[in-house]
Amino acid sequence: MRLAMVKLGVLGSGKGSNFAALLAGISSGQIPASVEIVLSDNAGAGILDLARNANIPAGTIDESRFKTRLSDDIEASVAERLKAANVELLVLAGYMRMVKTPLLEAFPHRMINIHPSLLPQFPGLEAWKQALQAGATETGCTVHYVDDGMDTGEIIAQERVAILPGDSAASLHARIQEAEHRLLPRVIAEICAEIAKL
Ligand code: GRF
Q1: Which residues contact residue 94 at a Cβ distance below 8 angstroms, ignoring those fewer than 6 apart?
Q2: Can you give the residue ranges of every domain in the chain?
Q3: How confident is the model over 63-81, as a mean pLDDT?
Q4: Where are the beta strands (DSSP E) in 51-154?
Q5: Residue 2 in this model has a pLDDT that exceeds 60
Q6: 106 closest CA partner among 124, 141, 81
Q7: DSSP 3-state of 34
Q8: How do residues 135-164 score in pLDDT, each as one tens digit?
Q9: Helical pair 17-27 and 169-197, crossing angle rounded to 10 deg
Q10: pLDDT for res 197
Q11: Starting from the edge strand earliest in sequence, which strands make up the sheet with 111-115, in order?
């Protein structure tokens, strides 16, 4: 087994609590990896501040044509930036756009996403609200490989979260995020251990 850490890249659009959990997992020694680069399509995203505070190269993705995906040329440049940073595993940690061919071809079976439901139930936006509206008694979170569909890629692992009487969207989302912060570092640690064997 090689001794080097697995090199991670992270894409995110929001506050970055899953990224913070990933950094904590690296600091504690749970995850044999280093984060080489963080990119965000939202210049004001908290995830960029977290990266800068940790002295991790952080940059923005400037996309004005589309809201739900990147233009092909911009996505190709993102893939180049990640490759230039020697990224081996790409983590989507609250990245709110669909991924297309440039990134899929650059990171085949090497790109994972965290989603706040037990997929295949409730893909798409605000999955915790979807679960409440459907009257579900249980939801959770899923880590899956990324394909070109919306939250349709191969499921790697899930954690269940009970929906309690009186749960609001905010209280349920908070409990799902606690589960995400356990699940994502655990899965990344397992994948990094596999990559390190190659
Ligand atoms: C998480 O709930 C994740 O499941 C979803 O986006 C949210 C990101 O939250 N894909 P954060 O930015 O990691 O706090």
Answers
A1: 12, 13, 14, 15, 16, 17, 18, 19, 47, 114
A2: 6-197
A3: 96
A4: 58-60, 89-92, 111-115, 138-145
A5: no
A6: 81
A7: strand
A8: 999 999 999 999 999 999 999 999 999 999
A9: 40
A10: 86
A11: 58-60, 33-40, 6-11, 89-92, 111-115, 138-145, 155-162
List of residues 6+ apart from 147 with CB closer than 8 A: 104, 153, 154
Mean per-residue pLDDT, 98-105 = 98
Whether residue 16 has its Cβ less than 6 Å from ligand 1: yes
Q: Which residue's alpha carbon is at the smallest distance from atom 12 of ligand 1?
A: 16
Q: Which CATH superfamily is domain 6-197 in?
A: Formyl transferase, N-terminal domain (3.40.50.170)
* Rounded Cα distance, 103 and 115, in Å: 19
Asked if residue 172 has its Cβ within 6 Å of ligand 1, the reply is no
- Is 109 among the catalytic positions? no
Q: Which two tokens stand for residue 125?
A: 């936006």
pLDDT of residue 198: 85
6-11 vs 33-40, strand pairing mode: parallel
Distances (CA, A) of 80 to 84, 103, 156, 196: 6, 9, 26, 23
For residue 177, what pLDDT is reported? 98
Say which amino acid occupies 24.
A
Average pLDDT, the chain: 96
Kindly state if the Cβ of 94 falls inside 6 Å of ligand 1. Answer: yes
pLDDT tens digits, one per residue of 166-193: 999 999 999 999 999 999 999 999 999 9
The kind and range of the H/E element at 38 are strand 33-40
pLDDT at 18: 98
